[in-house]
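can u pls check wat happens w/ iron/sulfur cluster
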Amino acid sequence: MKITLSQYAGFCDGVKRAYEMVAALDMEHVKRPVFILGTLVHNPSVNEKIEAKGIEKIEGEKFFAARSSEIGTIIITAHGTGPDVYAHAEKIGAEVVDATCPKVIKVQRLAKIYRKRGYRIVIVGDRGHKEVRGIDDWGGGGAVIISDENDLKSMKFDPEEKIAVLAQTTQNEDFFRSVGAYLKEKYSAVEILATTCHTTHERQIEIRKLAGENGAVLVIGSDTSANSKRLFEIAREINPRTYFVESADDIKNIDLAGMESVAVTAGASTPEWIIEEVVKCLAGDI
Ligand code: SF4
């Protein structure tokens, strides 16, 4: 069986940078206790490593309730967060290790700028996703979130309103384009700000090609990873024999008997060691 591994499988630049920043933290010299706001990546094995380092996960509510000295250092993940977090950290005297991906920062800043210019902010992304919530907060809150066709069709704006449409960085580009086209047709002052990141763009183009060229596709990722699920959905539309796996263990449940070729890709938060294990397992080396 021929196995083709995607050239983009695994950590994207933003996640890699965040992971390296956390891995390089010198726990002897950093202000303790150290917390991370939410999960660094949607991957249990990476998160266990972070915990073993002595970094504890904290969710927003608890962070905002924390007083001075309860938090020494707070780590912001690649998905970013809203301005209130920085303000609260300053108020309680906590150090900030900011691992927000620069591409996410760009979207946050655009939301802020366009809101100031009087635009209604529309974010095409997963409702409730950390990155989307952060972008919304930078835009002053109250953005309209479009997660699917139903959201799109139920949208109603004032015909005179200025609308700025932003994308969550890992958004399906086809869907983003269709939202932009729909809004432009119905309203007169619509600004489309194509903020899906280059990595996402390349991955989505490549997975379409691989799904068409191979008998089956394996997408490795966590079921809480938005970009992994997106890759899965795109591949499955083209190739019904697309499977979502979290680790090499899941391969046992997939029947690939007689399959001549399999393409393997992975979400932006999937560590290299898991990808290697899956490929080895497919090749029969494990
Ligand atoms: S997917 Fe793109 S925007 Fe998101 S963390 Fe990775 S590099 Fe940054």
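The pocket of iron/sulfur cluster is lined by residues 12-15, 78, 101, 103-104, 169-170, 197, 199-200, 268 (CB under 6 Å).
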